[in-house]
Amino acid sequence: MGSIGAGSSLKWKGLFIAGSFLQISYPFEPKKNKIDRQPLLSGRPPSPFASPGRPVCPAKRPIHALTVPTPRFKPIHSTETQYLVCLMSFRLRIPQYSGKDGTILLASMLPLTVLLNIFLFGGRYFAGAAPFLSATAATFLVLGFAYLYYTYVALLLARRFPGAERSNRRLLLALALFLLSDYVLLAGMLRAYDALSFLGYRYLESDLLVIVCLCAILTIFLTFLNEGIARFAHYKRTLRETEQLRHAYLQSQLMSLKSQVNPHFLFNSLNTLSSLIPENPDSAEAFLDELSKVYRYLLRNNEDYLVPLRQELAFLRSYAYLLRERHGSAFRLEVDVDAATQELLLPPLTLQFVFEDMLEQNALSREQPLQVRLGSMGKTLVIRNNRQERIMSERALSGDANLENIREKFRLLVGKVLHIEDTPAERIIIVPLIAKPEGAVV
């Protein structure tokens, strides 16, 4: 009985140390209450989760005068039970390469642990609960550490050699490092067992050769298994993003088509043109020329995924000319974008959707003109306008939908979205721009 009790204590302490070694964090913290959690009645030991240094309520104070919070845990008196609760409360931080690393770790390392211990210790491994649990914990600790270390190495190599075209080099380098690490870790484990005379083990070179070969086969298999799972997950994610991009593109085409035949914009433009013809024929001719540029751009660019910013700005200048002729000094536009930024790419008609939303959201008047400023900041286009909101309408809500579609399109293309920041005085829209691929002609 004495040996079983000592072995049981060794069992729990070994599990507790193993949990601490595998980068595990204890998630629970005692609540900071004004009154200590210690029981008011004398003779009971304090809770192991109570914080030191807190004043204890005097026992002579009446019970009804005290406000004692309900403890989260029942008092624990057994040392082994405390070890178990702490171990169960820990949370493994397993690095994720394939997304199934925790399952693969348990499914592969536990059987391998039992198999290696049977080979190394023979019948002594099953001599009792203490030898079985202590040997299992020790060997699993080494193998689990090796698996986590290999996962970290695989993640570092994936960042160093990204892309499918460099996967062969990445796999060969990973396997070389893994197999070398197998030999070092297993040799160190056997030498440690021999030095400690763990379960009476004595080191043999033949033992090292056998378990190194066995672990090498499993290492190669698990490496290709994790790589296959990771590639399949990447393939599914790519399909999903492609479908989302296709949906966003179709939505963008639909919005472009609506813009081409937008009766509100067209009728307003024709009304402005009809009023200019008798009053100022030269201005009417210039207005008609800019109107034709706007509709030419709308008709020609609804099939492209990306266009240079300079084309969008040229379209915007024509679009702004029409707005100024219609609203006069109630609309003002300033453009200050450097030449290098103008060569970056963005989805076509982005600026049109942004400006349509801007016009729908804000009131225009000569006393309080809508002032819009465009500038560049790194690889982004910054659009600022003063806010003078008017009552929301159905068309204004439609403008919000257009902005959401553009944000989704940017998220799928460059992994970023339009950043919109509203203050009481102004709205700031930051549009991420896309670098032109080398050798591409746009």
In brief, what are we looking at here?
Residues 253-330 form the Signal transduction histidine kinase internal region domain. One of its GO terms (molecular function) is phosphorelay sensor kinase activity. Helix content is 60%, strand content 9%.
Biggest β-sheet description: 5 strands, mixed
* Rounded average pLDDT: 73
Q: Tell the overall outline.
A: rod-shaped
Low-confidence stretches: 1-77, 83-92
Question: Fraction of residues in helices?
Answer: 55-70%
As laid out across the biggest beta sheet, the strand order is 4-6-7-9-8
CATH class of the largest domain: Alpha Beta
Number of extended strands: 9
Report the order of strands and helices: HEHEHHHHHHEHEHEHEEHEE
- Helix and strand content put the structural class at alpha+beta
Provide the number of structural domains: 2
Strand percent estimate = 5-15%
In DSSP terms, counting alpha (H) and pi (I) runs of 4 or more, how many helices?
12
| CATH fold call of the largest domain | Heat Shock Protein 90
Q: What's the N-to-C terminus distance?
A: 83 Å
